[in-house]
Amino acid sequence: MVNSALPLTTIAVSSSIFVSPQKDIAFALNVPDDVSSSDLFFSLAFPTHSSWVAVGLGASTMDGNPLVLMAYPSKSGNNVTLSPRQCSGQNEPVYDSSIDVKTLPGTGLFNDTTFIFNGVCGNCRSWSRDGSIDVSSTAQQMIYATGPTGDTQSDDPRNSVEFHSSYGSFTMDLVRATGEGGVPEIPANENVTSVGAVRLSAETGQVDNKAITHAVFMILAFVGIWPFGILVLRIGHSPRWHAINQVVAFGFVVVGAILGFTISLYYNRSKKFNTPHQIIGILVFIFSIGQLVLGFLHHRAYKKTQQPTKMAPVHVWLGRLVILLGIVNGFTGFPLALSPIYDFALLGVVLVVLPIFLLALAAGKIFKKFMKNAKQTDFDHTNGYEMDPWGRRAEPGMHDTLISAPPQGARQFV
């Protein structure tokens, strides 16, 4: 929440102040009454646990083309980076270098608990063909958003950020905020409330559900369902259920790929589709289609000829490559999502599932070999002779007992 350590300005200026319900962002605005000025003075405060905060001027939604003033800790952790951005719908706003924002005294980290940015913008009253604010309005629409708890320290105003954890809209009385130009004051107390601003909406506990579903579906496919399909074939000896299993896994991959493509369009860091995660992901998706086609063609040919095909080894090794690349790509996905800590969770899942998978394969091989040897105990592979009938079980139709001695007159081979 906004901390009591916020510095006071030396002069009192007219302003309106908005404070979010969770007090994780406070925004104060001053409109100079000089008719020749196009400046806007503002102050933006947020607690150190927020990875970023932003206020959008001139609209009640991101679709309304607001001018976004985004702030996050500097690389040193002792200052604030202010990034003016423009919206293009429900996507991460893009940095706009043409917006003239200057940093003013009083900017920085205070009492190790609160960041504050004091600034003046020389062209924030109108920023595009259909983007502007009305300084004569007593209810100018605006929006706000805050990032999740995390580390977004950067000096780069183009830095890409995580999905917001809370957002909302409000109106601000700009007539009340009009007066002598200067940095507006945010009252230095924990009970600070909005003045000259009215909250319209507020949403909290937000997460990028599409990104979460993408990760879950892909991990299930490559770490769970696809490897299980190998066990179905190698241990269960069921081509039918192997095929069904692989089709289900491919369905998960298709859904995950569609979600991944959609998510990529949301964030500045992924819009160009040139990251290792995206490149490997596209290759894996293409290989997955090839794997499915090869499996179908091989099975159809085998049913006709009952003979192995040249496609079989390609299908086997391509499948192994797809699973390996899919798992490796999972470890590149979480850093792209700015959540590298989840790589440890994925590593834990792999380290649990992989030994179980290998043990199951080994146990299946041993069991298969045991059953094969058991079936061949009736045949002497050394000299090619069949064992005497009293040394094996009776054939169907005979007494189901072991004959303990040869019948009279039967010749024995030593």
Automatic annotation (TrEMBL):
PROSITE patterns, per the entry: CYTOCHROME_B561
SMART domains xref list: B561, DoH
Superkingdom of the organism of origin: Eukaryota
Protein's name in the database: Cytochrome b561 domain-containing protein
Organism name: Xylaria bambusicola
PANTHER family: CYTOCHROME B561 DOMAIN-CONTAINING PROTEIN-RELATED, DEHYDROGENASE, PUTATIVE (AFU_ORTHOLOGUE AFUA_8G05805)-RELATED
Lineage: Eukaryota, Fungi, Dikarya, Ascomycota, Pezizomycotina
Transmembrane residue ranges: 215-235, 247-267, 279-297, 317-338, 344-367
Subcellular locations according to the entry: Membrane
CDD domains listed in its UniProt record: CDH_like_cytochrome, Cyt_b561_FRRS1_like
InterPro entries listed in its UniProt record: Cellobiose_DH-like_cyt (IPR015920), Cyt_b561/ferric_Rdtase_TM (IPR006593), DOMON_domain (IPR005018)
Sorted UniProt keywords: Electron transport, Membrane, Transmembrane, Transmembrane helix, Transport
Domain named Cytochrome b561: residues: 174-370
GO CC entries: membrane
Keyword flag Transmembrane helix: yes
Major localization listed first in the record, in broad terms: membrane
